[in-house]
Amino acid sequence: MRSSALDKGLRTGVIFGIVIAIMFLIGFTVTGAGLVGKLFGVSSSYNTPPLTFFVIFMVLMGAWAGITAAARSLTEPDTLKRALTAGASAGAVSGLISAVVGFIFGTLNANAIDPRTYLPMVSPESTKLFLMNQSPLTGSLMLLGVLTVSGAAAAGLSFYLRTHDGVKSGARNITESVRKTIRSEGVARVTNSPYARYGFWLLVAALLIILPRTWGGYWNYVFGTVGIYIILGLGLNIITGWAGQLVIGYVAFFAVGAYTFALLTAPEPHNLTMNFWLALGLGVLAAGISGLLIGLPILNLRGDYLAIVTLGFAEIVRILLKSDLMTEYTAGPRGVRDIAGPTLFGRSFVSDVDFMYLIIIAVLVVTFIAYRLQNSRTGKAWYAINLDETVARATGINAFASKLLALSLSAAMAGLAGVLFASRNQFTGPDDHALMVSINVICLVIVGGIGNIPGVFLGAFALKGLPEILRETENYRLLIFGVLLIVMMRLRPEGFLPAKRPVLEKSAQTSSKEAQP
Amino acid sequence: MDKPISTSTHNKLRLERYIRTAIGIVISAFLFWRIYNVVVLQQHFGADTWVRFGLSGLILGGMYALIAIGYTLVYGIMFMINFAHGEVMMLGAFGGYFTFEILRFIPAPTTASPDLNFLNANPFLSVLLAFVVGITISATAGFYLEKIAYRPLRNAPRLILLITAIGASTILQNLAMLLFGPQRKNVVNPDVLDRAAGWVINVGGNDVLISYTGVFSLVLSTLLMIGLFILVQRTKLGRAMRAVAQDKNTAFLMGVDVNDVVSKTFIISGALAGAAGVMWSIHMGLVNHFTGFLPGIKAFTAAVMGGIGNIPGAMLGGILLGVIEAIGPAGMGIDFQLKDVIAFSILVLVLIVRPSGILGEKLSEEKL
Amino acid sequence: MTTCIETKQVSKIFGGLTAVNTVDVVVPEHAIASIIGPNGAGKTTLFNCISGYYVPEQGQIEFFGNAIQGQPTYKVADMGIARTYQNIRLFGDMTAIENVIVGQYPRFKANWVDAILSTRRERDEAKQAIEEARRLLKFVGLEGLGDTLARNLPYGAQRRLEIARALASKPRLLLLDEPTAGMNPQETDTMTHFIRNLRDELGITILLIEHDMRVVMGISDQISVLDYGTKIAEGKPKEIQSNQRVIEAYLGPDVTSLTKKYQLRKKQRHDATR
Asked: Fewer CB within 10 A of the end CB, N or C, for chain B?
């Protein structure tokens, strides 16, 4: 019995030890300590954060290891001894691994060997912080101690919370009462009344009008980016979330839209300087048509070909844009400059506030279209193809045409996002259209809730808005996205805001019942 | 009524096939015309250049083939594109690089040359060690990739698996970038395997260098491919793999340990990718976190070209793709920057003209 | 009487295996016809040929006089052939009523532009679709379960939902692949009754594959027997029951003599008691 707790603890400890070691090697221990500092309101963006925060960060890691180990060894009888064994062993093993790594690099530092030739993120400052400003031996022993103690303490605490009814029922009472208030009739009457709904939307509208004017250029830039990514996400959601076909090279359509618009409006290299709105339409159209052309040979095949072909297409587009061959037509690696901003009745709207309004309007239009499509006949056909293509065909759905439509609409929305992006920055170059954009969009759609429109909003704010606030994590953004993708797929594939199916039978009944008397 | 009855609907199906074939013929005719123009009429390059291109294509193709086999094996068994496969190869390349770097710092002085290091004192042992390390790293990566990321999702929809694979690819790539830095690293070979050294042959009055590293890579990849073919066709594990590829459930009922077979498949494909990675670092000489990305996608193209799920197809596709990529830009008289475009265009072309690939038979409903 | 579906010398070959071998089946309109045969006799393959899932290597399939073989499945469905599956294949993550609405797909004409603009056609059709789906759910006895996810429905309900989805396209021919598989005798009776009702009330032709001989003999107007891909017998239930080749196909050739002995002894006993 005891050995199984010890065993689980050791295994968990190895995993956490490796994670902490890798964190140290990629310099994340410094960033993590900085994030903890930010939590306490101490900003230390460009310096090494104080030692206290690093210790807190390590305590948190140890606690996480301890709780995980305790939870994994959770079998009858659930005793304090078992929990402590699991937690302490997990903490100790992870501490041991960290200590060894710390000792090695501390000794290297002491002998004036700089490991940065091969491991550029292991700076002397980072090593010093990892060893708590002590000598290699003392520092690594302290590391071992901190992790062991925090692992055991957290496991013990989790045991206490699990077994003591007072705490448990207290927590339950609170959640219960909150739930009761939410579900109570009074609240329901308020939330269900049309006035409350109108009031809510009025508030949202007011915020959308007032905020861009008040919060300044930086936040307009950040939320403008969020808006563009919402459009991208809603577009990708059509083909991937609803029709179930993964498109990895989604950025290609973004690039087609951006470049079409850029080349039509910029003075160089073609000097067409077309009207903003006409160019916008043509950009969206070009992207839609490129989606259609890509889909034609691929979409009648089953499987994952679409994913890889679009990836190939995205690479072709990027390479061509960069190549000397096309410099004459696409301005090559320098990119296109002086792209036009929006004009209306001869007045130009290039200020950040005006552009924010334009993005808000575009987001609203795209959201509206997405909502209309979602529960239409077309939307249901997409979802049917997603769930079982064979049966969908046998039900009379032309799967090929439906998928083609979905891809074209997705591509057109990406084109719109590209146009807005190019126009806002007044510049676009090949590097704006790296594959990273696609990964970002896939990630935000999945984290928010695949197939769900509010989910896309949540995902865009979380993945494009939050990193702007947590600037320290910039280097680690893609790594975190990768981890997020795997963790989400394993634990919550439906996302944080899962899509819900509409209630149709009941609503039809109630409406007919209301009609009868 | 014994003859097959030909009707309008039969014709319609055939029409689609004809259209595909016709597009194929038109495109090939255009390519031939273009190549004829450039190669025969304009004669930009002498015969020696073509031999040089062909050789480097073969060498590159050998590596593509090794990676492509990994895609095909995994696709055959799991019906998924192991998107992180290119990154597994990149890890192998780093394994080779770091082995050489470490060995370079181990002194092995002799009386004749006191500055000698281990790398140059025992070049063959060093190369062997590099391969052992690279293959071990990649095989381990493949094993844990399957165990941590893919196994829990065995029965999940394919979209979820594919997204997980993209996540794994992103993680490995960025982890490598953060750990080792984004800049490209020069791989220092043992002096014997200097990239500029080799046999010189005379073609049409000009010298063509056949580098030792190239010949070494080509021979090794051929040997590995033969070994894999024997493994799949002749051994018990190979039989089990083929059984699982045919029908996972039946294989399970027949007493095949499916988890074990899937694990071993990932280990084998990881090992081959690792070998390709070490070859890459020895022959190409530049390694960074992005090393695996393009070869990965191109190897997938090669696997599709040969017929996905088909091992000889992957080998053929890999070598063909390598040669086309090397000869293509010169043959068609376009910029060498565009060689990556050629590979992707081939992928699209294959999917238009013959989606089942060169050697692939018609795939069953579930596989396609 | 008009012929609903007719297969003329249809053959389907997989590699070296001839799954269906020059089979002729003629089903008149408003009939309930059954295809029976041992496992692997090619029944489902024939179904797949009719519904357009496979293209037969040889032969012709006519639906009210129009050749349909080689047409894509969605077009065959569009023409008025609907089917169910041996192992139920519903859109599990959709609600029951949505399954039925998707089933009506071929009948409606509103496209995506209508959907975005919410035109009158779109709104009318959407309303009509829900009404019709509710009616069908009631018809198959699933009233009130419409907003349940299809995969959460009990087994029998899933079978009936599958039939409702097939009926939603207003088919002229309904292909049922083992509609009573996995049901207890009571459920089987209900289903048999239900199938007969389908024909009587909706006037559609039904072709079914079934293993339960009680069902087959009870409701079929006509039975075709397949064995190793070949049609070995055809006729009314009575004729099939006494057909030697059918008994052999089901029980093996040695059984014939056994059966004869059994019948002889039965007759003797009968005589003796008399």
From this structure: N
Q: Is B13 in contact with C69 (Cβ distance < 8 A)? A: no
Helix (H, G, I), strand (E, B) or coil at B103: helix
- Using the Cβ of C52 and the Cβ atoms of chain B, whether some distance falls under 8 Å is answered with no
Pairing of strands C205-209, C173-177: parallel
Taking a contact as any Cβ pair under 8 Å apart, which residues of chain C between 5 and 64 contact chain A? 51-53
Task: Determine, yes or no, domain membership for B111.
Answer: yes
Q: Please state whether beta strands C81-83 and C173-177 pair in parallel, antiparallel, or not at all (unpaired).
A: parallel
Structure token digits, residue B265: 């498949």
Q: How many domains are there within chain B?
A: 1
Q: Which of B1, B5, B9 sits opposite C71 (nearest CB)?
A: B9
**CB spacing of A302 vs B180 below 8 angstroms:** no
Residue-wise pLDDT tens digits, C218-238: 899 999 999 888 898 888 988
How many residues make up chain B in this entry? Answer: 368
Judged by DSSP in three states, C3 sits in: strand
Phi, psi of A82 (to 5 degrees): -60, -50
CA distance A457 to A358: 17
Mean per-residue pLDDT for B129-141?
95
Residues of chain C contacting A506 with CB distance shorter than 8 Å: 146-147
Chain C partners (3+ C-beta pairs within 8 A) = A, B
Residue C77 touches partner A, C-beta closer than 8 Å: yes
Query: What are the chain C neighbours of B14 within 8 Å (beta carbons)?
Result: none
Q: What range does the domain containing B29 cover?
A: 17-353
| A302 shares contact with chain B (CB less than 8 Å) | yes
B290 vs A: CB within 8 A: no
**Interchain CB distance below 8 Å, A393 and C83:** no
> How do residues B313-343 score in pLDDT, each as one tens digit?
899 999 999 998 888 877 777 777 778 888 8
Mean pLDDT of chain A: 85
Domain architecture of chain A: domains with CATH: 2-176 (no CATH), 215-505 (1.10.3470)
Do B163 and B78 touch, CB atoms closer than 8 A? no
CATH number, domain containing residue B322: 1.10.3470
Pair A9, A73: CB distance under 8 Å: yes
CB atoms within 10 A of CB C111: 15
Residue B86 has pLDDT above 90, yes or no: yes
Residue contact A387–C77, C-beta within 8 A: no
* Residue with tokens 């956490």, as numbered in its chain: A16
In this predicted model, what pLDDT tens digit does every residue of A131-145 receive, in sequence order?
Answer: 888 888 999 999 999
pLDDT digits (tens, 9 = 90+) for A319-364: 888 887 777 788 888 888 888 777 777 677 777 888 888 999 999 9
CA distance A143 to chain C (A): 49
Prediction pTM value: 0.85
Chain B residues whose CB is inside 8 A of the A120 CB are: 180-181
Q: Hey, which residues 167-196 in chain B have their CB within 8 Å of chain A?
A: 167-171, 173-175, 178-181
Q: What is the pLDDT of residues B88-126, one digit of tens each?
A: 999 999 999 999 999 988 887 777 777 788 888 888 898
In a domain, B10, yes or no: no
